[in-house]
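Researcher: I've got a protein sequence and the SMILES for nicotinamide-adenine-dinucleotide. Could you write out the 3D structure of the bound complex as structure tokens? I'd like something to compare against our soaking experiments later this week.
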Amino acid sequence: MRLKDKVIIITGAGSGIGKETAILFAKEGATIVVNDLNEESGQQTIDEIHSNNGKALFIQGNVTKTKDVQYLVDEVIKKFGRIDVLFNNAGISGVGQLHEIEPETWEQVFKVNVYGVFLVSKYVIPHMMERRSGAIINMSSCIAEIGLANRASYAATKGAVLSLTKSMQVDYAKYNLRINALMPGTIYTPFVENYISKSPDPEKTISTIKKRQLGEELGKPIDVAYAALYLASDESKFMMGAHIYIDGGVVNGK
Ligand SMILES: NC(=O)c1ccc[n+]([C@@H]2O[C@H](COP(=O)([O-])OP(=O)(O)OC[C@H]3O[C@@H](n4cnc5c(N)ncnc54)[C@H](O)[C@@H]3O)[C@@H](O)[C@H]2O)c1
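Model: Sure. Here is the predicted complex with nicotinamide-adenine-dinucleotide in place.
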């Protein structure tokens, strides 16, 4: 039980990496607050956790809406009295070269991926500061570090999250908070499945993705969930402002 009795909010936990992490964290003894825009998929995560005898609560909400975020944080404090860990996981994709991207798309990708991290953290952090205890995990991506075709907006948001993580760590170290980032490579989730299936030649797209990494298989949500587990647990108490690659060697292996 590596997360025994911790109260943990995971945004975007109705699907993919967030869902898998919620299920793993609950098995490790945490009480999970599942946030997602999508009511049905958020409820499915809860049902799966409950069927394993885990503790979880679903609070539907949009990470970019102040009212939703305030409600989320207020409810968690009302019900559990504290927030031990926040996993800023919710995110959306943005495809296209810079000159092709509509300004509205650019804004929307930044809104969810960067503003959403800002907004949820803004309302959670005062509660952590008060208790002088807490860990925040921000979801970046290995493409924050490398160029990738057709991902200008998305890569820029993940670079912003990485740099935000480090500044947050500097500001809140004195309150004993730890802020770290995850840098996944391509992880086979609905997010990636959707991109592959819409590409003109899905087989070719899969083989191009594989060529970027050292390993043969694409990453799985559980691969990222285990890294998140380490950052959420007290085992990582000396990790501050760090970022962890879970990318099959894309960045560091070649
Ligand atoms: N899958 C990958 O290859 C990969 C790689 C690196 C980083 N990431 C990042 O990991 C995170 C999760 O990705 P995934 O692949 O599991 O995606 P996913 O699409 O499977 O899940 C994302 C979830 O976030 C929710 N969501 C979207 N916008 C939201 C909002 N405004 N408010 C609340 N919830 C919202 C969606 O409803 C969905 O359930 C994202 O931040 C993504 O950028 C993914």
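Model: Residues 103-131 form the longest helix (29 residues). Residues 111 and 146 are 22 Å apart (CA to CA).
Researcher: Great, I'll pass this along to the crystallography team.
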